[in-house]
Amino acid sequence: MGTNVNLLAKGLKYLGILVFLFIASPISLTMGFKALKKFENTPKEMLSYVIIAAAGILIIFTVFFAFKTFQILLKAIFNN
């Protein structure tokens, strides 16, 4: 029962990307809500909604990517 080193390297690379996504997704959502407050009743208000929608999609992708990353790490360690 050995560790698959190539799969572990791939999982650790994904883990680095996941840490970046854990930081970037809430920050982008916060920026969208602050832009919505700042651009209230202006033509740029639509841009705020686009930023909020993109941040919501990014958060959903982050959760999916987290499950995928931990699945790869578990396969590498326990060698299914």
Q: Nutshell version of this structure?
A:
This protein is an all-alpha fold and 80 residues long. The chain has 2 helices and no strands.
Name the overall outline: rod-shaped
Class from helix and strand fractions:
mainly alpha
Number of helices: 2
**Which residue ranges are poorly predicted, with pLDDT under 50 across at least 5 consecutive positions?**
none
Task: Characterize the largest beta sheet: strand count, sense, and whether it forms a barrel.
Answer: none
Number of domains: 1
Distance between the termini: 9 Å
H/E topology pattern: HH
Strand content: under 5%
Mean pLDDT: 92
Number of strands: 0
Helix content: over 70%
Instruction: Determine Rg (CA atoms, Å).
Output: 18 Å
Fold blueprint:
Elements: H1 5-38, H2 45-78
Helix pairs in contact: 1-2
Written account of the structure:
- With 80 residues, the protein is an all-alpha fold.
- It has one domain.
- 85% of the residues lie in helices and 0% in strands.
- The protein contains two helices and no strands.
- The protein starts with a helix and ends with a helix.
Features:
single chain; 80 residues; mainly alpha; 2 helices; 0% strand; rod-shaped
